[in-house]
Amino acid sequence: MKTAPPPATGPVGIHIGISDKDRADIAGGLSHLLADTYTLYLATHNFHWNVTGPMFNTLHAMFMAQYTELWNAVDPIAERIRALGHPAPGSYAQFGELASIKDVPAKPPKALEMVRILVEGHEAVARTARGVFPLADRASDEPTADLLTQRLAVHEQTAWMLRSLLEE
Questions:
Q1: CB pairs under 8 A, 24+ apart, for 69-74?
Q2: Tens digit of pLDDT for each residue in 86-122?
Q3: How far is the C-alpha of 151 from the C-alpha of 57, rounded, in Å?
């Protein structure tokens, strides 16, 4: 006996085993993660351009590695939102509304203040990712859980490495 497919949601139904509500909740959480990641990317790239002082070479290279990693992270997050059937935010206005990370000061701070700001940013992104995890877990959304696990590992390790530069 054949069973009828679940009812369609939108022009083409999405039948991946995750309810419409759970997909919407997860996509909403991932939208915050995308905004935080992009905002942290911009801050890190800004600091790469504007760092000065005796640690210039070290920080310039470190920030480049970090902003490159962040740049490569935004696409998988946005594509997961799309796979869940929702539009990914992509404007500065949307990111400004969704991000938990504050914009960097207009005047570039000193090098170690840049490091401190980036520590706070990576910790904030880790908190955002961790906040989405229960939603993905409850919905048995393994691809999102995997993505979040990967992002958590990167942000927690990067925050640790940056914090190490602040120790005396």
A1: 69/154, 69/158, 70/37, 70/38, 70/40, 70/41, 70/44, 71/41, 73/37, 73/41, 73/151, 73/154, 74/34, 74/37, 74/38, 74/41
A2: 999 999 999 999 999 999 999 999 999 999 999 999 9
A3: 26
